[in-house]
Amino acid sequence: MALSEAEVLELRRDFPALAEEVNGQPLAYLDSGATAQRPASVLDAEHDFLIHSNAAVHRGAHTLAGLATEAYEDARATVAAFIGAQPDEIVWTANATDALNLVAYGIGNASRGRGGAAAGRFALAAGDEIVVTEAEHHANLVPWQELAASTGATLRFIPVDDDGIYTLADAAALLTERTRIVAIGHVSNVTGFIAPIAEIAALAHEHGALVVLDACQSAPHRRLDVAELGVDFLAFSGHKMLGPTGIGVLWGRAELLNALPPFRTGGSMISTVTMESSTFLPAPQRFEAGTQPVSQAVALAEAVRYLERVGLERIDAREDELAQRMLAGLAEIDGIRIVGPAAGVPRAGLVSFDVDGVHAHDVGQFLDAQGIAVRVGHHCAQPLHRRLGLTATTRASAYLYTTTEEVDRFLAAVAGVRGYFGVTDSVGAEAGA
């Protein structure tokens, strides 16, 4: 059952930022797809850690170091349980981009002979293929472009249709015995399309390929279980799921993490160092070089507990209702082109659209003047926008604290955009500008 409006209003009391005014108007925050607001419990968890337990983890013998290490590893266990994983399969990273680069550059190191015999399973060469989709965020595209360039592998992409979506058949048509890696987004940050990940993973594994999942737009909103998804690596960010910036999560199957050569090297991740060579600790420590994001991990664990108390299934159902409300309302406004799945089709709680004759940046400023925060631009998905024949879109994204009134305010404001900028259907030249 979806969260009710009354429950949402009660939840909002936990989020100090939502009480703010912007340009003299109550803030309607519809940009959670970029960065979510944080509840007081998450802010307090990090603050309390810094006051009472702040210290370097793992290396110290004093009491504070022990408390910090315990909190740090408890956070790892909490996040692991959140996605049905084991603690030693969770690697802390700076963000999801960092996590995806860790995998791509680790495979690159394996392709250059690093990591010994165990890493040979990752090695790429000319003739091998890496498969992505045309809808990928740059974070799950550019690292694979770089990997292909450095190894001689070929980068191929699953094409999308005029709505920016693709089918399982489209994916199946591109996978061959040469496919070594399939890197794919769970939910598009532009269209809200939810990919059939378990089915794609099964097909990829039939061809012997590894599957890397960008779960940035799914982990904050829906229940994930790595066993059910069937992927090999999975990445997401803390700041999109009520947590702090500066921390991300990489999950990988334990045997893969322990075979993958490290991306960064230095302190904290080594076993033995001589002046000639070094050996590395097992995962996850082998990927956590340097000073770790300890307070951020503690805060992310509290964000996970908050989401679990509310219920991911209820959040997902609520967001679907809000997305359908936005779709229906936008469809009634002249000059609006919506991208992504049609009304009635399940999608994430975000909607991107183009306003005929008005640039997305102008749309965003018009809405901001009314206290409504949305995202504008290509959303780090230039190839997808190019395929759609657009340079930019406006994106409204909901979360567990979004109210029906905020959605209706947003729709009323969008209805006034073209008139404000003097673009109307009755003036042909202006309407086509």
TrEMBL record:
What UniProt keywords are attached to this protein's entry? Pyridoxal phosphate, Transferase
Q: Which cofactor does it need?
A: pyridoxal 5'-phosphate
Q: What does this protein's UniProt record list under function?
A: Catalyzes the removal of elemental sulfur and selenium atoms from L-cysteine, L-cystine, L-selenocysteine, and L-selenocystine to produce L-alanine.
Q: What is this protein called?
A: Cysteine desulfurase
Can you state which reaction this protein catalyses?
A: (sulfur carrier)-H + L-cysteine = (sulfur carrier)-SH + L-alanine
Q: Name one GO biological process term.
A: cysteine metabolic process
Does Repeat show up as a keyword for this record? Answer: no
Q: Which family does the UniProt entry place this protein in?
A: Belongs to the class-V pyridoxal-phosphate-dependent aminotransferase family. Csd subfamily.
Top-rank lineage group of the source organism: Bacteria
SUPFAM superfamilies annotated for this entry? Answer: PLP-dependent transferases
Give the CDD domains listed for this entry: SufS_like
Q: What class of enzyme is it?
A: transferase
State the Gene Ontology terms under molecular function: cysteine desulfurase activity; pyridoxal phosphate binding
Which Pfam families does the annotation name? Aminotran_5
Residue ranges annotated as coiled coil are: none
Which part of the chain is the Aminotransferase class V domain?
Answer: 29-410
What EC number(s) does this enzyme carry?
Answer: 2.8.1.7
